[in-house]
Amino acid sequence: ETAFKVEIGDKKAPGGSVRQESVIELSDGGLYIKTLTPDPMKAVVPLTLFIEDRLIQATAIVLYVSKNTGGQQGPGMGLKFITLDEKDRTFIRDYIKKHISQGLSL
Fold this sequence. Notes:
This protein is α+β, with helices and mostly antiparallel strands. Helix content is 15%, strand content 47%.
């Protein structure tokens, strides 16, 4: 399992807080975050992804929540990117291609 760190939330917002979780599935369209405290469906959340030496800022909407503790993904939430810089989207796409060609799965 390949995992990346992600910060969910916005420290700058009034009363804003940030929590750190793990991304276990990633595409240029969205991601799956493993968490015991998922946000509600349709919630729009600011994200900061940490991939290699790159910090990627994005906003995503929660498409589904899984409470399944026995499945392959584990409990968490699937999100779709709403805002993601095109350079970051290309970086993610290239990163995935590079690692798939090396025989690693994301």
